[in-house]
Amino acid sequence: QVQLVESGGGLVQPGGSLRLSCAASRSIFSVKVMGWYRQPPGKQRELVARITSGGRTNYADSVKGRFTISRDNAKNTVHLQMNSLKPEDTAVYYCYMTGDYWGQGTQVTVSS
């Protein structure tokens, strides 16, 4: 089984930046899709960003231009760089891997 562990969440002010990391217990070199989802309280989980093994990325419209997803296959790690954070970005962020693997989630709170 694969374990995904997120880190980097926390409390930031609007306009601030945060970098999330997802460490996988196994190689992600051949993994087709790695991604980040988020779930605000009372709302459904939604896609934030995804990246394929070939480096192709997709972003939710709400985060385009502000968030960047990347993968470091050598370190079995996926990152989500979040800039210009807004209060509506507040949510629990989950790492995803092809095969329906999920991390435990990390809380991101954007508040002044």
Structure report:
The strands form two sheets. Strands 2, 4, 5, 6, 9, 10 and 11 form a seven-stranded mixed sheet that branches. The model has no long low-confidence stretch (mean pLDDT 97). Helices cover 0% and strands 51% of the residues. The protein is mainly beta. It is globular, with a radius of gyration of 13 Å. It has strands at residues 4-7, 10-12, 18-24, 33-39, 46-52, 57-59, 67-72, 77-82, 91-97, 101-102, 106-110.
Short recap of the structure:
The protein has 112 residues and is mainly β.
- C-alpha geometry: globular
Compute the gyration radius: what is it?
A: 13 Å
Q: What does the largest sheet look like?
A: 7 strands, mixed
- Average of pLDDT: 97
Question: SSE string, helix = H, strand = E?
Answer: EEEEEEEEEEE
Spans of at least 5 consecutive residues whose pLDDT stays below 50 are: none
Helix percent band: under 10%
Which structural category fits the helices and strands?
mainly beta
Q: How large is the share of residues in beta strands?
A: over 45%
- What distance separates the N and C termini? 40 Å
Number of strands: 11
Counting H and I runs of at least 4 residues, what is the number of helices? Answer: 0
